[in-house]
Design brief:
Blueprint: H1 2-13, E1 18-19, E2 30-33, E3 35-36, E4 45-46, H2 48-60, E5 64-65, H3 68-75, E6 86-93, H4 97-109, E7 113-117, H5 131-138, E8 143-147, H6 155-161, H7 164-186, E9 192-194, H8 202-211, E10 215-217, E11 236-237, H9 243-251, E12 254-255
Parallel strand pairs: 2-6, 2-11, 3-4, 5-6, 6-7, 7-8, 9-10
Antiparallel strand pairs: 1-12
Length: about 260
């Protein structure tokens, strides 16, 4: 699965990109991290030191970190403006390192973050957050919790291997049941979704809308703006070997009109 992430990253990084002010309002980089670890390498793992340096780089270059919900309100046309050079920080899956390494850094730098978590992972092993840790993060003024399905499936593979009826039930659990679990466990309203592996289609988008998600996020090395459909907003995924290249794109406020599907 991690190889799939890496391939998506490499392929999308090879897409041509340009920097421009478009007719769809502000371009908002939404950054996606996964795991932090000071010693153990991984394709989607960066060191806490690198993570902190990345965030400071954006601050030093005049970017303003804003909550994802503020960006969503702007993208929906419900908010007229945002601070200069807005940027959003997110993290997927619910790794324990969010609590151990990431949280102290965002507290020090006073940066809001949205965690997209899937309930199937929480309290499942020492590598993932516990429900108690997640609640502690939620109770801070900086952390927002949102949905990432129930089990982080590859929807394409699931559809190939299931009958239509079974797949429909499967999607219900991944999009509807997972949302209710998070809401009940955390005492929150879940209105945003991150697609596992960046995979989605028209059917999944319609089901996500029915489930009550206002916006969903995929993977794509381009800035979010109002030209994208609500269920297809892109994020810059941070991959270990492409961190520096990715931040060069973000610093240039690059975007393309092409969407990942």
């Amino acid at each position: 699965m991690r190889l799939i992430y890496l391939l998506i990253a490499v392929l999308t990084m090879m897409c041509p990109y340009i920097s421009f002010a478009n007719n769809n309002g502000l371009n908002i980089p939404i950054i996606l991290y996964h795991n932090l670890n000071p010693t153990v390498p991984g394709s989607m793992t960066v060191t806490p030191q690198k993570f902190e340096a990345n965030l400071k780089l954006l601050k030093d270059n005049g970017f303003t970190f804003i909550p994802l919900k503020d960006a969503v309100a702007y993208l929906q046309g419900k908010r007229a403006s945002l601070p200069p050079k807005p940027v959003v920080l997110t993290a997927d899956d619910g790794w324990e390192s969010v609590y151990t390494y990431m949280f102290p850094i965002i507290k020090k730098l006073n940066i809001p973050i949205t965690l997209f978590v899937y309930p199937g992972s929480i309290s499942s092993s020492k590598h993932f957050l516990s429900w108690d840790q997640l609640k502690e993060l939620k109770n801070s003024a900086l952390v927002d919790i949102q949905g990432h399905t129930y089990s982080h499936p590859n929807f394409k593979i699931a559809k190939r291997n299931m009958s239509p009826a079974s797949y429909e039930q499967f999607v219900q659990k991944e999009l509807f049941t997972s949302k209710k679990i998070l809401e009940d466990k955390m005492g929150i309203k879940v209105s945003l979704l991150a697609w596992p592996f960046g995979i989605y289609n028209d059917y999944l988008e319609k089901q996500a809308t029915k489930a009550g998600y206002d916006m969903a996020f995929t993977i794509g090395y381009r800035t979010a703006n109002r030209s994208f459909k609500p269920m297809e907003q892109p994020r810059f995924m941070i991959v270990d070997k492409l961190v520096d290249q990715t931040y060069k794109i973000i610093l240039s406020s690059a975007t393309t009109k092409k969407k990942i599907t």
